[in-house]
Amino acid sequence: MAIDKMEQSLRPPELEMKPYPAKIITLANGEEMIVRQAKREEVGVILGTIQPLIGVQKDFYDIVAARMYAEVLGWYEYRVANEFVLIGSIDGEIAGIVTSRLVDGKEGVSLHTMTIKRGLRVGAQLFAAKMEHHIDILGNDEVHIVAESPIGFKRWMIEYALEDRSAQFPALRHELGGVPTFTLTRKLWENIRADKCTGTRPVPPVKLAKADKLKMPTEYPQIPGFKRG
Amino acid sequence: MRKVSIVGIGHTVFGNLSEFDLVDVMGFASGNALDDAGIRDNRKIVEQVFVANMGGGILNHQTGIASSLVSRMDMEPAMAELIENGPASGASAVKMGYMAIASGLVDVVMVTGGELMRTVTGWEGTDFVASLLHSEAEYNYGLTLPAYGGMFTRMYMERYGLTERDLGLVAVKDHQNGEKNPFAHVRVPCTIDAIHDNENAHVINNYIAEPLRMYGMCPVSDGAASLILCANDSPKMKYFTKQKPILISGVGSATDTHCVHNRKDPLILDAVRLAAEKAYKMAELKPDDISFAELHDAFVILELAISEEVGFFERGKAGDAIRNGVTAINGAKPINTSGGLKSKGHPVGATGVSQVFELVKQLREQGEEGRQVKDPKHGMAVNFGGFGNNVVAIICSKGEV
């Protein structure tokens, strides 16, 4: 499709980014989650997955879902620079989503982590995959991170023992509103990678083919009685 | 002594209930118990309320909890007291309820245990529980309950040849039961392949206090459970026609040294053994007579160690039992049919009451499909306070009133 000059002038400059190689993780209940990079044509199923959670106040799902919805739309419409979206799916059904972006070749900014299937540390695995992409694959030296929920704070700031960079405000300002900023450095990642990040590559083609047909969740533990209309 | 039966039971879901206050949560369970007993409209017949809670003052900045609950439930002028015995507060409250009725002081008692622990971070929660340790000789050196769990597990493994895989099997069995329990905190099954055998297992099931991994530890939970007790010979028993009464046939408790290092052998849990022996003696039962048990598996190793100490298995042989499916729901001696603390959760003040709730549910044969013990006659609960320094054992039986 031809892109007119006005549209071109609205789009941010993009860094070339290596793709995230898909991997497979066996979760505690024996189910296999495939983690892979989202494709642009999957935006509908991703937004449809996020949308019902915008109304869930518990555990700050509302703010995370609302912001992630905008981030995914921004990624699709070329309104955010250097963004990537990773999807965790089980039998093709979306179990979790992460969003993130690069500031430049050295710095990354973690945006959001959304867990749909709970109790299996899906979010923890996807967050680790996001850090793996930033540092191991895209070559960033640092990723700046904030938490908008107590769960996020426990999972990232405490469990990763992230560096507290809050004192550098306003020189260092995370894009999510100046909330206390913490940072994962390459050195920190190298120390904890083995304990936090897992997965097997390559994903067998049959399993990857199943994960290529993404489906919206049929139920949400966060929304009892949910039925997709 | 008078005979005492449980005539009503109530339970909240265990998990994250931090949008409610502590007395709300206790009130939900208490209301359920009153409904189950069929006396919500006649709740003023309850003469005494015992409330089990360990951390309301510390975690929730709330004291006077027993009186608050009575008022919230519109049950004045019932007598009300708070019982605090660390993680064994719940069973201690059941014991106090039993004693109040058996002694003839009152006829009808409500026992409610509850805790809200997720209002603080996991670290603060761990620190709060560690406050039960000896302040000079244990706590000040940084000891926590998970640390004790890890050391105990290491010692047991070295002495008896237990493996990390065996510990994983306990979690698998508990989660199979917990998945079917509508009140359980973690209703997700796990497989031994995923949490132990698989190449991803070291991350999926990471070490917390080596050799204990995440699936070797109970979650930090909020929740409450409640029981209504009545004297078998009381005229007030006429109110309780809705459910078949379940007899409290045995009660025992015992203490051990506060500091674990003062024990001759840290693997010998004297208080567990003595509490169980007293309960067996009172019930005129032997370990073989017990149909199923709820054992305090805050760490999965404790399920194995307690099962040996109460006489179900020879010392060092509980590993064989888990490997051979003896303690599974359809095994010869089902243990932690509720999912145990491991899967159901561990709101400390609620746990002992919840264990007895499960005994009653099983003895009424009201367990959900797939987790009902076949033809149970006697169930035993062991609630483990401190690191085994104050333990309460309760036996419930199908009995005639």
Task: Please provide a written account of the structure.
The complex is a heterodimer of chains A (229) and B (401). Chain A contains seven helices and eight strands; from the N terminus they run αββααβββαβαββαα. Chain A is of the alpha+beta class and 229 residues long. Chain A has one domain (19-212): 3-Layer(aba) Sandwich (Aminopeptidase), CATH 3.40.630. In chain A, α4 packs across α6. The radius of gyration of chain A is 17 Å and the shape is globular. Chain B has 14 helices and eleven strands. Chain B has helices at 22-37, 56-59, 65-72, 89-102, 122-130, 145-160, 164-179, 192-197, 201-204, 270-283, 300-309, 318-323, 340-344, 348-363, and strands at 4-11, 48-52, 79-83, 108-115, 207-209, 212-213, 223-231, 246-255, 292-295, 378-385, 390-398. Chain B is globular and about 60 Å long. The model of chain B has no long low-confidence stretch (mean pLDDT 97). The chains are: A alpha+beta (229), B alpha/beta (401). The A-B interface holds A 25-30, 58-59, 119-121, 125, 128, 150, 153-154, 158, 194-200 and B 16, 19, 121-123, 186-191, 193-195, 198-206, 215.
Identify the notable features of this structure and list them briefly.
heterodimer; A: 229 residues; alpha+beta; Aminopeptidase; eight-stranded mixed beta sheet; 21% strand; B: 401 residues; alpha/beta; Peroxisomal Thiolase, Chain A, domain 1; two-stranded antiparallel ribbon; 14 helices
